[in-house]
């Protein structure tokens, strides 16, 4: 009789799985950052079937290391301090237990997820909605730069999970629009940034709106001393997870090229012609340089979007949405998009301007090689950047190689089938050669030549403003 029951249960489980609308299987190679697991399955955590359906339909097959460590502990209600690399599944590691614990029969806000940027808030809320789509859970995103009245109207309806940036959430809490008295889960993604001097006072005020019996979950790739201070003050015997045996992603190969400042655009043009780029993100150190470089790239004949903090929020949202959906191959941006942004198609990151510190460098190159896939990070280094290059290598314990004349095609996401898991592509360590790029790029694009509406997002390959081509 027990055998019949077991067989019937197995058949029922297979029935609901067969009815799922699964995405195409991702056959790309994955590194140990996500494959070095204990062999657990999502079913091992006794999650609600509706949640499992959303997990599998979102493309997840088995939990990654950070998910294996985090999900079962978070489900018990214990505080967690988790450190794991960018792009290894941290977001799902806290969203899955958060969704599991929501009581859909209650109209109250039950969970707050804080992130440092508006783009990351939009992305995180979308992950919540995607994984929880069968659960009848209401998720709201609220950030600065959007209409406060719209948020107030939205909160007149039932909301279970709020995803937002600290300032806007505090504003709504101070106005008594959000009631956190029944919210028992307080989550911070990119916690190192959220606990910087810029945000810490806001975070501490927000905690005052939560009940004393609450669960605090912190996730980040780096944990400076301010995190320890917060842990000692606001967390109760947190379970600490540290999966950072090394700081950089195993799948990201890092190169540098020595160039003079005036040679950078020409060097970038050469990279575009030589690399197999699915999508690329190109970082500059200032908003003005972002706009100038975007214009120069279109003059070279390549389509290009751009994004930075001085743009209007709805323009930033449109650029992020369209780039994520593959409308354009190249995105030039400031450090606005260094945190948590997950665009699986990005396989090349180029630091047109070398970052000023190791933390920024780590987050920038983490935009490629997402979820264990292969990626390339290329740094354009001037004479002034040499010491900084050495310093960042030492701080991160990583090796940034001189760029070879030919980059191994197996490192590119488009040629993943030739990559052997047991024999990764070799780092091609060639002698430095400063004479490879001797020609100057095209004439500079001067500030007084900008179109009045240029800050709306980018250019197409004809040099037309992005906002014009999208009807903005």
Offer a quick outline of the entry.
This protein has 472 residues and is of the alpha/beta class. 35% of the residues lie in helices and 14% in strands.
Outline the secondary-structure elements.
Layout: H1 2-18, H2 32-35, H3 49-57, H4 65-75, E1 80-83, H5 90-100, E2 111-114, H6 118-131, E3 139-142, H7 148-154, E4 161-164, H8 166-174, E5 185-189, H9 191-194, H10 200-207, E6 215-220, H11 225-234, E7 239-242, E8 252-258, H12 264-274, E9 279-283, H13 287-299, E10 304-307, H14 313-324, E11 330-333, E12 346-351, H15 358-365, E13 375-381, H16 386-396, E14 401-402, E15 458-459, H17 466-469
Parallel strand pairs: 1-6, 1-7, 2-4, 2-5, 3-4, 5-6, 8-13, 8-14, 9-11, 9-12, 10-11, 12-13
Antiparallel strand pairs: 10-15
Helix pairs in contact: 4-5, 5-6, 8-10
Give a description of the structure.
The chain is of the alpha/beta class and 472 residues long. The protein has two domains: 22-240, Rossmann fold (3-Layer(aba) Sandwich), CATH 3.40.50; 250-409, P-loop containing nucleotide triphosphate hydrolases (Rossmann fold, 3-Layer(aba) Sandwich). The protein has helices at residues 2-18, 32-35, 49-57, 65-75, 90-100, 118-131, 148-154, 166-174, 191-194, 200-207, 225-234, 264-274, 287-299, 313-324, 358-365, 386-396, 466-469, and strands at residues 80-83, 111-114, 139-142, 161-164, 185-189, 215-220, 239-242, 252-258, 279-283, 304-307, 330-333, 346-351, 375-381, 401-402, 458-459. The strands form two sheets. It has an eight-stranded mixed β-sheet with strand order 14-8-13-12-9-11-10-15, with helices on both faces. The protein has a seven-stranded parallel β-sheet with strand order 3-4-2-5-6-1-7, sandwiched between helices. The longest helix is centred in the first third of the chain and has 17 residues, at 2-18.
